[in-house]
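[Automated response] Your request has been received and processed.

Submitted sequence:
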Amino acid sequence: MTIATDPQPTFGSGGAEPYARALRREGRLQLVRSPGSARPAAPSRGAHGGALLAGPAAPALATPAADAFDVARWSRGADAADLSTILGATSVLDIGCGPARMVRASVERGLDALGVDVSTTAVAMAADAGLPVVAGSVFDAVPGEGTWDVALLLDGNIGIGGDPGALVARASAVVARSGSVVVETAPDAETDVVYDAQVVDEQGRASATFPWAEVGREALGRHAATAGLRVSQTWSVGERTFCRIVRG
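Generated structure:
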């Protein structure tokens, strides 16, 4: 007998669908943490969809209640910080691509590129603009798996699934052996937290609750090492910080 299970909620989905609304209208959103849900990130157990919490005895962390972000930025052209992530790349896979500004930037520079996103609205917007994108999760089969030169996890997308270790391990698996994963990290180098969250728009419309994570550059190095990977490069452009992860 097969028992059907509900799919894990993803960033901004479900509920009143505020993320999809904001993408179409370029509105502002807040990422609102569920009270008391923040926990230290646990080393990956090697399988996506494991327990969100680090363990029953893990202490709750004090974290800000919400972060605001402007969805319109994701529909604009790539800026200098964005472009630093694809310098020297020969092909680019953008994980959690949204409206696919990094796919556009890559294609405009003559690179093979593909965006992957679970948001059907984001994928439709990118496809309408003539950009190569697919709907789905990076934890599913990915076109060109094992051949990409660079995989991107920008704009906080290291939070996808609420399991940073599993995510970097999976992202590393979709690039070539000589490839790398570029991750945008949290401003605080030691940040390493997972939590439940909702996306809420300016009218108070909320998504379903989903697992998310925030990771700073030092913490990312620990997650990479647990997965048999290492951080080979760290750089900052303005207030944004990026790390390049390669096979150990």
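Summary generated for your ticket: The chain has six helices and twelve strands. Confidence is low (pLDDT under 50) at residues 1-6, 45-63.
If you did not submit this request, please reply to this message.
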